Structures are given as C-alpha cells and as structure tokens.
Amino acid sequence: MQERRLTLPFDEETARSLRVGQPALLTGIIYTARDAAHKRLIELVDAGEPLPIDLRNQTLYYVGPAPASPGHAVGSAGPTTSYRMDPYTPKLLALGLRGMIGKGLRSQPVIDAMKQYGAVYFGAVGGAAALIARSIESSRVIAYPDLGAEAIHEFVVRDFPVTVIIDTLGQNLYELGPKTYKRERT
Amino acid sequence: MREISTASITQTVREMFLELSYVGTRDLMAALHDAKHREESPLGQLVLDQLLTNYEIAATERVAICQDTGMSVVFAQIGQDVHMVGGDFEESIQQGVREAYTEGYLRKSIVRDPIFERVNTGDNTPCVIHTRIVPGTQITLTALAKGFGSENMSALKMLVPADGIEGVKRFVLDTVEAAGPNPCPPIIVGIGIGGSFEQSAVLAKECTALPLDQKNPDERYAALEDELLERINALGIGPSGTGGTMTALKVHIRQAATHIAGLPVAVNICCHAARHATRTI
Q: Which of A69, A96, A124, B85 gives 20 to 30 Å between its CA and that of B174?
C-alpha cells in the first residue's frame, strides 16, 4: 500500500479518513510521554489544572529515548509498549489528543474513546530505534526535565515511518493481521 | 591458584555491554535474514527489512540497537582456584555497567525502589548478578541487556506432574499468544522446566543468551523446542505483531531435576534484540 504523508498536528477529519493497515510518513511536531509523564499529566487533569502542552490535535509518542551521542539530534528512539499508558489515555483523548504512536495492544476503553473523539493509534516498529531516530530532526525537553529520558520532549520529525494499527472505527491490525496468517492448533 | 584483578572484571563488563548494545550477534543476523526469506506477509517482510537496516545503522554508527538498553544481568562462573584482588567482586561488575551506560550513551532505565521510590539511579545499576563457583582458574562472564517490553510478557507457572508435556506446551503457547505484539516479535522464547520456583526462572533467562543455532542436547527436548517453534509461528502474530508467519526465531529449553510434586515452567520472552555477550578471563 502507498504511504500516506501526514502533516502534524492533524484534525479530526483527517484522523477519520485514515484506515487500518495504512502505512504513513509523519512530518511535523510530536510530543514524547511515557509512564511517569502520563501520571503527572493525569494528576493535573484531575486537579482541573492546565497541562504543560495543549494536546488538541497533537500526537503523543510513547518513547524514552537513549541519550544523544555527538552528531545526533537524539539517541535511539523506538516505541515502548503502549498498554501501560491505557489507564490514562481516555482522559487525554477527551482533551483532543489526536494521534498516539507506540507498539502493542490497547484496552477496549482506549479504543472506545478513539472512536468517540476521532483519534488514531499508529504503530512504529519495536526495536527499529536507530532507524527511527534518523527521522527525528530535533529534540528539546518542554516539561518534567527531572524525569530524564521520561521527560516530555518535543520532536520535530520528517517522514517518521508508522502504520495505522487502530483506526477511528476501532478496526485493529493486531486482530486482522494475525487472523490472516493463523493456522489452527493441531 | 590464579590471581585476577577486579579491574579486569570491570573492564570486561564495560566492553561487553558497549558491544552488545550496538552490535547484533552473527547468529541473530543470520536468523533475521532467514526469517525475511521465509516470512509470507508483505508487511512482515517490510518490518524485517527495517530491523535489518536498524542493526546495520546501530553497528556502523555505534548507537544503541534499541532505546531500551535494558536491565543489566550478569552470569558469572568463577573458578574455585581464582583469587580476586584489588576490590569487591560485585562492585567491580557494577562499575563496569556504570561506565558502559554512562560513556556509551545508553539509556539508564533502573529505579531505586519498585513501589515507594521510583527514582532513576542514573547509571543503570544495580545490575542483577548470578554467581556459580565452578572448577578451574578462570572467570566466565555472560552479560545480558534485557529490555522490559518482552520481560513484562514473561510468565512462570507451577504446573503439577499430571499436566505433563501437554500442559507445558499449552502454557507456553498461551503465554506467547497473550503477549501478541507487545514483546517486539520476532521473539526468542527461553523456557526453564523443572527445578524449584526460582531455578526455573533462572534457567529460562539463561536460555535467552544461548546461540540461536544451538539445540538442547537431549533429543526429546530438542524435538519439543522444534515443535513449540512451529506452533508459535502458526499463531500468525508475525513481525511487529501485525500478522505473519515469523513470530519466533528460536525456542530454547533448559530442564532440571525437580520435586515429586512439581512441574515448574518459566517462559522468559526476549525481543528480537537478544543482546548478550560471553567472555572468559
């Protein structure tokens, strides 16, 4: 399938036009957040306080990058497993979060919220971290510097390679793909 | 008796963690190339292509294969006729880890306490150390960097003797199927069978550092390795979990004597980036 080029941030209409299995190249701004940053974001949401970033139409990348060596904008930066963010995610989707990049399964409440608010779950290839880092042009910490690799970074990316894993209809490549290749247990 | 300086242990540990974090082992590269030829899914082939390119970039530029440079684990076989000089043995290993992760631009992923103080220790220590005393005058160290995407998908179950070989197969297949895309397939499956609760887990961990072209020396267990590999690949999970025929590269089993009432089974799943190195001092 031909890769679809997407500019970030992106709106609900664009999100709803993306279908499961679609390869895409992302260009623009993404924000990193993993376990510890999610926990802090949700504490702010629950307290009714403003977040350090406006999530409307933005994309979160579940990653804790390796330190950048000289000559690199960022160290190796592949996706971490997404399910650990599931308990926090529906509340962020309600705030307008449009895209998520990670790897691995999502919970039903996350998928339901994606359908409701019009958000997409992209998969990046787990363990392709040095390759993925090449599409990250710059990186700066914009919140929670004390968290180190877990701080929220702003990445400027060009042609960041992903595949639509779960679309706004709730169609899931982790269910559809294996079904095609599964041979019955003997 | 032979004297070995703890400084040389630090140096060896440091070198091993730097090398294994950047460079995939030759058997792993061969297995991934082979998987690419055998994978039936076009998307799966694309994923394997990306992984092979990634290993090339990491080795050439000396950058981490994966951003999760893992929890450090060292297995040490210490000859009983070795006399260590110059410092504390365990601290010499910790120092090697500290130097590798700090100098090598590797991610520090260890927190001080699992519940109350999840504060990063800043240098990837402490490293998990397993020590055995063996005959001889040498020290053999095996270093592993274990990513937690796959570690989290691992499981241990105390089966009962009546569960038998079928129970073992069911537990392994259920564990891998439930893991699905999470542990970064194609995976390597380490299985420890028998022993006590903790011994089965240690055996499973050791399996993840075995060469991929090595079989269990007991033909019956080698056949079980092959059967499980075939059945895991029949699950359809595929590279990255998006569907395909190459879900695992290898199943390794290590077995041990166990209690009349028991059949412990530990399944330690390892992502495709099985990072390990062994050296003898």
A: A124
